[in-house]
Design brief:
This protein has twelve helices and eight strands. By secondary structure, the chain is mostly helical. The chain folds into three domains: 61 residues, no CATH class; 65 residues, Arc Repressor Mutant, subunit A, CATH 1.10.10; 93 residues, no CATH class. The strands form three sheets. It has a three-stranded antiparallel beta sheet. A three-stranded antiparallel beta sheet has the order 6-8-7. Strands 4-5 form a two-stranded antiparallel ribbon. The longest helix has 29 residues.
Length: 251
Amino acid sequence: MRESELFWGASVEEIKRGYIQQGEHYVCLLCGKAMEKGIVFHEDGVYYEAERFMRLHIENTHQSVFDYLIDLDKKLTGLTDHQNRLLRLFYEGKSDADVQKEMGIGSASTIRNHRFILKEKERQAKVFLTMMELLKEKDNYAPVFIDYHKTAKMVDDRYNVTKEENEKLLMKFFPEGTKGQLKTFPPKEKQRLVVLRAVAERFTYETIYGEKEINQILEEVYHDYVLLRRYLIEYGFLDRKPDGSEYWLKK
């Protein structure tokens, strides 16, 4: 199962924790890293059992689940830039007076009003989540949509792809299977998304690729590897250093 599917399929409590237990492994919901139960891990002279080491991994790699979530695209969090900054300061333990001073807005009472608005947003989210859970029990005709990756830069209707559509498009553009060559680069945005998701699976997390290496991997997929590389970055699957010397799969 893709890491994004694990994330979007997790409960609120599981996302708060940042990882889930899947079989004999603990899997990080933020990057997909897995740690096998029963294995002792060693770091900086200290030995850790798997679950404790997973918590350490989240702290060292992602700072915290909150830090990871707050950095997601605003179309995923539903937060304005203003609300995002407020939440960051609240999470840092700042008082209303400190937040008002740092942001240079209104007064301490203005900040309290913002807290109230955020609380209203929380209530609305709880009600909506509950309705959606109840809807799942009754809606027998709801299509299964493909989950979009958390590093997506442009979340819009191009992500409106069902699993059935996804499979048909993959068969069309990868007639020999997704490990084979791309027949042609799709002309439509939705089709490009499906193809790029499949291409991104050829890369692994926590691996740094040089420009020559990444070009070789993409050239095995499609002759115009520069085009693929550009769109993988544009759609938020890959990231790179400004000078193009290093590339990596975004988490």
